[in-house]
Design brief:
Elements (H helix, E strand, L loop, with lengths): L2 H19 L2 E8 L11 E8 L4 E8 L17 H6 L12 E2 L5 E8 L11 E10 L5 E10 L4 E6 L6 E7 L1
Parallel strand pairs: 3-4
Antiparallel strand pairs: 1-5, 1-9, 2-3, 2-6, 6-7, 8-9
Length: 172
Amino acid sequence: MSLSRRILPVLAGGLAAASAQGAEITLDLTLPEVTAPAYYRPYLAAWVESAEGAPQATLAVWYDTRLRDNLGTSFLKNLRSWWRASGEAMTLPADGISGPTRGPGSYQIRLSGDAAPLADLAPGVYTLAVEVAREDGGRDLVRLPFAWTGTAARETTRGAEELGVVTLTVEP
């Protein structure tokens, strides 16, 4: 095998890695107005899974950060899928990931591919998972497939009750 045949695939892989790291992920989501006797703001976790379903990176965790003695973290186990995948092992609060709960409305999470938590994500096919749980309320989990290869992509889905429209945009 010639030297050029051995080097070209390595160079191509390196270029894909560089272009994926320069990419940006934007997650637009809506928390709908829920009519209930008592409304509690939902907890939210957003994370990336490999094509096989293994957790790769947590992108956001919204929980009640104001409760004394860090009591808000004890309710994170209601985000069952995220909790089992990687939440139980996390130390919270986590810089750049943790934040307070939000009320009904539209929100945007924007992350650069060359910054944590996406900097170590190798080029490939992944799934973005978003899970929401609310005290005395429901629970929603949506998944959006995407390619982390430096190409543009846009996926949209809708939650059943606790999540409205969720849109994932990947920009090179």
